[in-house]
UniProtKB/TrEMBL annotation, chain A:
Pfam families: Thiolase_C_1, Thiolase_N. This is Acetyl-CoA acetyltransferase. InterPro entries: Thiolase, Thiolase-like, Thiolase_C_2, Thiolase_N. GO terms for molecular function: acetyl-CoA C-acyltransferase activity. It comes from Novosphingobium sediminis. Residues 259-373 form the Thiolase C-terminal domain. Residues 4-173 form the Thiolase N-terminal domain. Keywords: Transferase.
From TrEMBL, chain B:
Pfam families: OB_ChsH2_C. This is ChsH2 C-terminal OB-fold domain-containing protein. Residues 48-112 form the ChsH2 C-terminal OB-fold domain. It comes from Novosphingobium sediminis. It comes from the Bacteria.
Length: 381, 130
């Protein structure tokens, strides 16, 4: 396969932007990404994009220009961005186009997501009785994990504390003030053991990435990072996932483990070779469990890692350098691409106050979502 | 009292003196819950699940969910979790007759039909009475 590169990255600030639709935030991000890449809309050969709650992406051609390009709408829940990225990469790798766009955007109402049972093929009573909440799943998964692997509530708090500290230095982050450990641990409980400050909130925002072939990179002299691998995987049998009225007694694999292995294999490197990682942190527990599921540490080692600050920007493996979902919020369609955006920023050395020292060479991103799917992308400089 | 309440859905649990959850046995022997509907039910035998199991995980719902939640007003926090029915399946369930602090990984739990609101009942598990 042809090597594929990211040559432009654009982002509309995450959080709340009253008066600007989700799709308009997407257009904003696309324009920024094109300016960053030094290209025009007429240079874009094909586009993939979508949102979970802010409409179709292809209508953007009204604003961006009626160039006749194929624009594929992607509707893949939390993996919308990851799937758009994988598709755009494949279009270039196949040699059909030299420049492709991957874009994700969203705009959610305030408060927790309220999923409809029918849309997930589940009976109505599951929602009526109050068991179909994403926040519960995360609490139930980390509760069991903490008992089995000796993770403390303080460690949950440290993850959130780090996120808000990193968010201070990210222009696109929503929460940009530090919050101390005491406040995090003593904030109102949402679903035991997770408090308010340990959860990210549904939000708004958009990210656009311009991908290009090696030929185009040379032609433009672009500031490019190479996509070493992209892998999206759905759940295997016996995994424990969000929105599950029952779970198989035979503990199976996990979509994250599958996606991670596939991505490392494609890239021909291992977890020990990664300089910086963005891991799905819908809440503090998710970051902790995803450290292990992605192969960066053993189950239970997170207690020591967090205590020693190994996942800080200056640590051995910086994790969620822009504050992740906890500081940025979660516009579903854009969230996975934000991680790749942040990795692009880090590999280009443009991270400012949150820049990982020592010119990082490899960057890893991981998104997870309902009903049990994961997307991993590895970038190399 | 719970006898007077309508089940929140049909065929969730068996209609007998000592009711139990109604699951299904797939052609490959796997046990699932709830019993599937539509085409997914093809080849699935109804299976009466065990009334006893062990606590697999738990949490407390501390904020009022949006719709489709239909719990009574004013909102009261409630417990829920997963109970492993040995050799069968791990089911998600309301947890009743206890407080958060009582719950421990692996503790014995038993099935019960519990009031959901003024007119309806749902299924739940509670710590097994010694």
């Amino acid at each position: 396969m042809e090597d594929v590169y990211i040559i432009g990255a654009g982002i509309h600030p995450f959080g709340r932007t009253d008066g600007r639709s989700g799709r308009d935030q997407g257009v904003y991000a696309v324009r920024q990404a094109m300016a960053d890449a030094g290209i025009d809309w007429t240079d874009v050969g094909c586009a993939y994009g979508g949102s979970a709650a802010a409409g179709s992406a292809d209508i953007m051609v009204n604003e961006l220009g009626l160039t006749g390009l194929p624009f594929i709408n992607v509707a893949n829940g939390c993996a919308t961005g990851g799937s758009a990225l994988a598709s755009a990469r494949n279009a270039i790798a196949a040699g059909e186009f030299d420049v492709a766009l991957a874009v994700g955007f969203d705009k959610h109402p305030r408060g927790a997501f309220n999923a409809k049972p029918r849309e997930y093929g589940l009976p109505e009573w599951y929602g009526q009785t109050g068991m179909m909440l994403t926040t519960q799943f995360f609490a139930l998964k980390i509760q069991r994990y903490m008992q089995l692997h000796g993770i403390s509530r303080e460690t949950l708090g440290r993850v959130a504390e780090k996120a808000f500290r990193n968010g201070v230095h990210a222009d696109h982050a929503w929460r940009r003030s530090p919050v101390d450990l005491e406040t995090i641990l003593n904030s109102p409980m949402v679903n035991d053991p997770l408090t308010k400050y340990m959860f990210c909130a549904p939000a708004e925002g958009a990210v656009a990435l311009i991908l290009a072939s090696g030929k185009k990179v040379r032609e433009l002299g672009a500031d490019a990072v190479r996509i070493a691998s992209v892998a999206v995987r759905t759940r295997p049998p016996g995994s424990f996932e969000v929105f599950a009225p029952s779970v198989d007694i035979d503990n199976g694999g996990k979509p994250t483990i599958l996606a991670s292995k596939a991505a490392f294999e494609q890239a021909g490197i291992g977890p020990e070779d990664i300089s910086v990682a963005q891991l799905q942190d819908t809440e503090s527990g998710a970051e902790i469990m995803h450290m292990a599921e992605n192969g960066f540490c053993k189950d239970g080692d997170q207690e020591q890692w967090l205590r020693e600050g190994r996942t800080e920007v200056t640590g051995k493996l910086p994790v969620n350098t822009d504050g992740g979902c906890l500081a940025c919020g979660e516009p579903i369609g854009a969230s996975g691409l934000r991680q790749v955006y942040e990795n692009t920023v880090q590999l280009r050395g443009r991270g400012g106050g949150r820049q990982v020292p020592g010119s990082p060479k490899t960057a890893y991103s991981h998104v997870y979502g309902a009903p049990g799917l994961s997307g991993v992308c590895i970038l190399e400089r | 009292m719970t006898q007077l309440l309508q089940p929140i859905a049909e065929n969730l649990w068996t209609n007998e003196a000592e009711p139990a959850l109604l699951g299904g046995r797939l052609p490959n022997g796997k046990i699932v819950f709830p019993y599937p509907s539509g085409d997914a039910a093809e080849g699935v035998e109804p299976y009466r699940l065990s009334r006893k199991g062990t606590l697999w995980s738990w949490t407390r719902q501390d904020f009022q969910p949006k719709e489709p939640f239909e719990g009574p007003e004013p909102f009261q926090p409630y417990l829920l979790g997963y109970v492993e029915l040995p050799g069968e399946v791990i089911v998600e369930t309301r947890i009743v007759d206890c407080v958060l602090e009582d719950l421990k990984l692996g503790m014995p739990m038993e099935f019960v039909v519990a009031p959901f609101d003024a007119t309806r009942a749902t299924y739940a598990f509670r710590p097994e009475k010694a």
